[in-house]
Amino acid sequence: MDVVSQLQRQFVDFTTSLYHEGFLDDQFTQLQKLQDESNPEFVAEVVSLFFEDSENLLNNLANALQQQIVDYKQVDAHVHQFKGSSSSIGAQRVKNVCAAFRNLCEGKNLDGCIRCLQQLKLEYSLVKSKLETLFRLEQQILAAGGTVPSMA
Amino acid sequence: MGLKKQGHHHLVAVRLNEKLGAKRKYTFIHKASLPRIVVLWFVFMCCISYVIYERMDADNEERRKEVLTSMCDQRARMLQDQFSVSVNHVHALAILVSTFHYYKNPSAIDQETFAEYTAQTAFERPLMSGVAYAQRVVYSEREAFERENGWTIRTMEKEPSPVRDEYAPVIFSQETVSYIESLDMMSGEEDRENILRARATGKAVLTSPFRLLGSHHLGVVLTFPVYKSKLPPNPSVEQRIQATAGYLGGAFDVESLVENLLGQLAGNQAIVVNVFDVTNSSDHLIMYGHQYQDGDMSLNRVSMLDFGDPFRKHKMVCRYLQKAPTSWTAITTAFLCFVIGCLVGYMIYGTAAHIIKVQDDFHEMQELKVRAEAADVAKSQFLATVSHEIRTPMNGVLDTNLSSTQRDYAQTAQACGKALITLINEVLDRAKIEAGKLELEAVPFDLRPILDDVLSLFSEKSRHKGLELAVFVSDKVPEIVMGDPGRFRQVVTNLVGNSVKFTERGHIFVQVHLAEHAKAVIDAKAESCLNGGSGVVLSSGSQFKTLSGCESADDRTSWDTFKYLVADEEFRVATEETSQNVTLLITVEDTGIGIPLSAQEQVFTPFMQADSSTSRNYGGTGIGLSISKCLVELMGGQINFISRPQVGSTFSFTAALKRCEKNAIGDMKRLPSDDLPIAFKGLKAIVVDGKPVRAAVTRYHLKRLGILVEVVSSIRMTLAMSSKNGSLRSKNERQPDMILVEKDLWMSGEDGSVNLRLQEWKPNSHTFKSPKMILLATSITGAEFENAKQVGFADTVIMKPLRASMLAACLQQVLETGKKAQQGKDNGSSFLKSLLCGKKILVVDDNRVNRRVAAGALKKFGADVECADSGKAALALLQLPHDFDACFMDIQMPEMDGFEATRLIRRMEMKANEQPMNGGSTAEGREAEWHVPILAMTADVIHATYDECLKCGMDGYVSKPFEEENLYQAVASFFESKLNSEP
Predict the structure, then answer these.
(1) Shortest alpha-carbon distance between residue B892 and chain A (Å)
(2) Which residues touch B830 (CB under 8 Å, ≥6 apart)?
(3) Which of A52, A61, B587, B954 fits B652 for a cystine, CB–CB 3.0-4.6 Å?
(4) Is the pTM here over 0.90, yes or no?
């Protein structure tokens, strides 16, 4: 019982910090609301989709920016995708970097784009590890027989 | 995306500029060539004028010549006629002499007879100065002749004639020339030749002109032969000479006679006439006129004269005495032509210059237009970007776990944020209003929360200024009406905003009544005033019975009327209930600076403020009222105002809305804040307020929460009532749950003494749940707050303006009934569930994550979701026939975007709809028309995107990422319309 409540508090604190530090936004809350008994793995499913997509997109972006002649249209399309999926799951900081990226792309600023890509990778890995931590906590709570506190 | 678009528009602008540049080359007049054209035109006009002058001058000359010709010919003919008349007469005279002198024996003529006869017939020979007859005397007969006549033959020099073969002494003479009697005519050279020629030809002959004896005028002598025997026909010269008996001669005094003749004719002064003997063509002898030439040498006329002597030739030469006068007509005409030409030229020049100027201006304008359009596009883009950027942080405002007060603040923040986005859209709409393209929505809405929201927008400002800001909606106004809530809100916001801006003290009061009811009450009151006349004295004290006690411009809104409006519960207009239409009268009353009388006419003119100092002091563009007027007129109403400078203004407008059935409430656009908690139902409150209008407002808000309200006018009365309750404890009289006291009532000295008693009274009723003491205040200082706490208002102070939701939040805090607050929110969800449950919906998005989230959101509401990852895939799935109920379509997708896909789907459906239906398809129970609702999913929130969605056949749009409220609105609006279409 003690373990559960401790885990639960840890979970709440961690989640609050995620919102507070801007890793996640309201959209993630909305996402959590969509998860119910009929669809218990919804958030995890969406997030893992996001991870897959994001890794593909990051690879594609890295490739696209290494080309002799950079196809900014292509780059922009990738970033647009990235922005769409990140805003869908509420990964706010990734989304913001995407917005900046698109502006740089518009200006055909290669250096800026490469720098932005690095930043995007960083933010992505951050949010990925945070989300993974979050899920792990959730699993632990469930394993300990507790219920995941609702943030909504 | 915004930047990209901007770039594209920039390109458009540049292209337009290029087009303009190309167009510019085709201007038909070039500016630089204009002066050259003007000079050319001037020279051309000179030439034209000169030609005209020449032509007219030539005409004149021609006419002059004709005149001269006719005059000369006339003179020549007359002279010739008269001459021949004279010649004929001399001829007759010759025959007379031969008849009576030679054929008669003895002669019937002597000098006396001849002289008398010729004198009497002189009129027959107007040109002749005299006639004489000379007899032919051969030398052998001379002596006999001389003897017979008694004189010797003399020469012209009056000397006795020398011996000659032949003589021709004059024997008869007219008296005018009697001096030549006995003179031998053969002695003069001229006469001798004449005589010889005359007798040889048998005709009249003339001498060349010479100076006559006697008169010394120029003249010619005419000589006729007289034959003594009859001549054979065609006689030879010899025969003639043989037969010659004598010679009849006459002198033409040409000079004086022609003078005489010309004197009789018109135009004599104008011309010079000369008569010449031109027998010898190299030497013209002058017969008349001056030898040296004078007159106009440029023009003359020669007329030949025939005086009957074939040997002699004469001619007459006429010319004008004076040079041709300069033709003023010609000069004037030419000059006029020139002037007219110049004027025409000037006009054309002016026009051309004007055209050039206009063209230049036009090009400049076009350039400016292009620039303005580019700026407009940039502006729209800016707004789109900004609105998007505002929207994102607004989402962060949404809260989950806040205390009630915090929630109210958060809701205020959210409402403000939404209003801000609305405002941005309104700014975009402004152009639409002006273009007359604005269309109003007709959706069910509750205007009470809308008015609350409007108030909350201005609550900060009004608190700061210490204004009473209040809203009151009559009970008779239906809860739900059909109309355009956004526009309604916009108008009220604008009016209240103006009032707040221009009011420094007093109150701003928004009221909504049924127009007919209000009219009936006001009319009734006016009647009673007229009849009783007592209503006029009402404002005897310094206090007016308005919301704040300040005087208002329209005293119809004061308590005297208001109490009827509020209290007249039984008032029912039968037609009102049954008819679908409901007309509301909304008044916004303030006690501000008012509108100067001079500016009142221009209030609804765009950009007009009372004067320039107004905008300096209060800011604003002055466009709000004009937009409001447009909107009100679109809503089928009228906007009016009554204003008194330094007293205040009351704006009122009517809006024609439709009643809405209660069961349709579910369709309503609903904000989370709309739903008031029901936890307070049945509670009882006492409102302590000396001002009836203000008390009515408080009561209105409390009533909305389901709280029973009693109004008392002073704390003393409250105490009395409470103590009575406390002592009697009657079963039906319940202890009030709360007591709400107006701050100014508590502060005023009148009730100051009872404060302590109030405090004392409170713990007395410990057995029951003691009533909560609540202070209502517009503004409060820290010290006052402390003081209030001490005297018993420990529970809470509610800051005005009052709003039902805010009141609820405060009461929740006070009564600790907040737990049930969540209830309202589920209504929307459950409704959404009922709408979407079992519906088959296609989600089209190229982004897997988005797709999954959208599908998840829709599934949560029970929908059967299918996904497609591109426009093409969607198109394939939507091939007819299909069983999808709706489609959510992402707009920005590679290859085929949402717009394009929608267009293709619509085309496909149209084709299918055009085809005649076979029996099978109707049996399936399908709608006759294929039209799958398509909703766009977009991150853009500006209306421009929305318009584009509609243009390509979409039915609506939801913003991305999915938001329950937004989804709810979009889905509700199209499923509702679908429900309507399906009976």
Answers:
(1) 9
(2) none
(3) B587
(4) no
